[in-house]
Write a structure and sequence with these properties.
single chain, 298 residues, 6% strand
């Protein structure tokens, strides 16, 4: 089968193909990344619990609580997607794919996409909250509000309780704002940086949704043997552009000092590159099969 269309498209497959010559290395790298993704998931669960304890009032609504745990929900959905794509592109034999299993996978992925979209909305809503602030002009020293159950937002992810023991070291002399409806305070010194990270989180979430949908498109096109389809070519092209944005976001997090975000973002890129490697291996094997079938029919 001709690859004339796709050969003109620079794709991640061309970068990963050399790994297929070293299957043990590819296998080890894949499961190393998957393992670290799960470890990072546990870290985000811990961070969301801290954010819940630090920013929400005791009478917070269920919707606010769900938004606070959006990263946990988001990451869990991504882990499930990784598992489904791994089953679809590598772990399960072709004979296992029945109409019933296809429907199950479609339902699971639909639920995951819903959770991911809701998490993206959470990033958007939280970022907008950073523009709905109550000026605290009467506060020039955080020690004056120590012990009142308030927390200072240090950056996009970290909070510190304003206590008598810690207040003197928490941005004394800065201008402060309270996020409306929350128990967290943010300083003018950190506000622009936190807003930038909020918009970056939102943009990153949207691009990831596009990339994973394109992976899903590629899975369906390959399963239909449409290797020289223009749709497949365009899917791979836009995926490359998406990965470029995601790598750029990693560099932004690194520049702003978010080591965990940077490490986590690269892990997710490598995690889905493992799926891309599965797709490349699947394509190679299927093209060989089709070539043999074509030769035997002549």
């Amino acid at each position: 089968m001709s690859e004339s269309v796709n050969s003109r498209v620079i794709s991640i497959k061309q970068v990963l193909l050399p790994l297929l010559a070293h299957p043990r290395v590819a296998f080890s790298l894949k499961w190393f990344v998957y393992g670290w993704l799960f470890i990072n998931f546990l870290q985000y669960v811990q961070d969301d619990i801290l954010a819940y304890n630090s920013s929400l009032a005791a009478d917070a609504s269920l919707a606010d609580i769900i938004l606070t745990f959006r990263t946990t929900i988001d990451t869990a959905a991504w882990l499930v997607l990784i598992v489904v794509f791994e089953l679809e592109t590598h772990a399960l034999p072709d004979a296992a794919f029945t109409r019933w299993l296809d429907r199950v996978f479609t339902a699971i992925k639909g639920l995951c996409y819903t959770c991911i979209a809701y998490a993206a909305y959470g990033y958007f809503a939280d970022t907008l909250d950073l523009y709905d602030l109550i000026p605290l002009g009467h506060i020039d020293d955080l020690c004056s509000v120590a012990g009142q159950g308030l927390f200072l937002q240090l950056d996009a992810a970290d909070y510190s309780e304003i206590s008598l023991a810690s207040c003197a070291a928490l941005n004394a002399g800065s201008e402060f704002f309270q996020i409306r409806g929350q128990t967290s305070i943010v300083s003018a010194n950190e506000l622009d940086s936190i807003r930038t990270m909020g918009w970056l989180d939102f943009g990153n979430a949207i691009v990831w949704i596009v990339v994973v949908i394109l992976i899903d498109v590629e899975v369906h096109l390959q399963s239909a043997d449409k290797f020289d389809s223009k749709r497949l070519s365009y899917a791979r092209l836009f995926k490359m552009l998406g990965y470029g944005f995601l790598i750029g976001a990693c560099l932004m997090w690194f520049f702003y000092g978010y080591a965990l975000y940077t490490w986590d973002a690269f892990l997710w890129i490598f995690g889905f590159w493992a799926i891309e490697l599965n797709l490349a291996e699947w394509e190679q094997e299927r093209l060989k099969e089709l070539s043999v079938e074509t030769s035997s029919s002549v």
